[in-house]
């Protein structure tokens, strides 16, 4: 059975990593405090070949099914970004020439990030509506890219039969332009949640929009991915 991949699992942290968390300097994830920031000055904290770390960042690494941001560190393309527990590693082109201690400018591709944020939250809403109204079917996968999101369930029958209701409920939440509150529930272990008052409170370490209205129009598409397994694909209307 797959874990719920939205959640930064506290249990996955080993006792050792919990102890080390107290003494190691991890990158400050400014993409949580301000997910709308597109440029940031930071300091390089380590360099190992093409792999660098920085003291603070706005470039989101592939996590919880949400794809990495595209961006640059001092003009060098981020080729890969990976989160390992509380640290984030960025791979740049070999010729980057950066050294520990250098001041750098980090920029992200905002057009892509904003689509990822909107689709991520659209997926959050669909997932939560399904969970609440269809007796929490097991979620077996999720992925957010810049052109669509998908969520997979163990589900008998055709999940598209729920789409009329789902689209109506999602539209009600989106047109209500509700405030989305995102916060730590355990900052030491970087466990975060989002909450919409009266609707849901969900653990998630992704980057979240501030209001549901930012999502705009949604389109849902069904895909049967195997016996008893159904996929919902979510696309933005624009
Ligand atoms: Zn989320």
From TrEMBL:
Swiss-Prot/TrEMBL keywords: Metal-binding, Zinc
GO biological process, one term: tRNA aminoacylation
Any Pfam family matching the protein: tRNA_SAD
SUPFAM superfamilies in UniProt: ThrRS/AlaRS common domain, Translation proteins
Named cofactor requirement(s): Zn(2+)
SMART domains, A to Z: tRNA_SAD
UniProt domain Threonyl/alanyl tRNA synthetase SAD: residue ranges: 191-233
MF annotations from Gene Ontology: aminoacyl-tRNA deacylase activity; aminoacyl-tRNA ligase activity; ATP binding; metal ion binding
InterPro entries noted in UniProt: Alanyl-tRNA_Editing_Enzymes (IPR051335), Thr/Ala-tRNA-synth_IIc_edit (IPR018163), Transl_B-barrel_sf (IPR009000), tRNA_SAD (IPR012947)
Keyword Phosphoprotein assigned: no
Name this polypeptide is given: Threonyl/alanyl tRNA synthetase SAD domain-containing protein
Organism: bioreactor metagenome
UniProt lineage: unclassified sequences, metagenomes, ecological metagenomes
């Amino acid at each position: 059975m797959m874990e719920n991949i939205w959640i930064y699992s506290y249990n996955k942290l080993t006792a050792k990593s919990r102890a080390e968390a107290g003494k190691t300097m991890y990158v400050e994830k400014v993409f949580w405090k301000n997910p709308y920031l597109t440029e940031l000055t930071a300091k390089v904290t380590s360099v190992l070949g093409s792999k660098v770390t920085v003291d603070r960042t706005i470039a989101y690494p592939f996590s919880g099914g949400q794809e990495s941001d595209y961006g640059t560190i001092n003009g060098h393309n981020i080729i890969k970004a990976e989160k390992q527990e509380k640290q984030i590693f960025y791979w740049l082109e070999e010729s980057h020439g950066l050294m520990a201690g250098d001041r750098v400018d980090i920029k992200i591709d905002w057009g892509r990030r904003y689509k990822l944020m909107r689709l991520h939250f659209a997926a959050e809403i669909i997932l939560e509506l399904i969970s609440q109204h269809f007796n929490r079917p097991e979620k077996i996968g999720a992925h957010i890219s810049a052109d669509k999101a998908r969520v997979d369930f163990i589900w008998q029958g055709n999940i598209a039969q729920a789409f009329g209701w789902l689209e109506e409920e999602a539209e009600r939440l989106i047109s209500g332009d509700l405030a989305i509150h995102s916060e730590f529930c355990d900052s030491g272990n970087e466990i975060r949640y989002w909450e919409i008052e009266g609707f849901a409170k969900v653990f998630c370490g992704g980057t979240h929009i501030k209001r549901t209205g930012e999502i705009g129009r949604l389109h849902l598409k069904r895909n049967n991915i195997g016996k008893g397994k159904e996929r919902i694909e979510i696309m933005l209307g624009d």
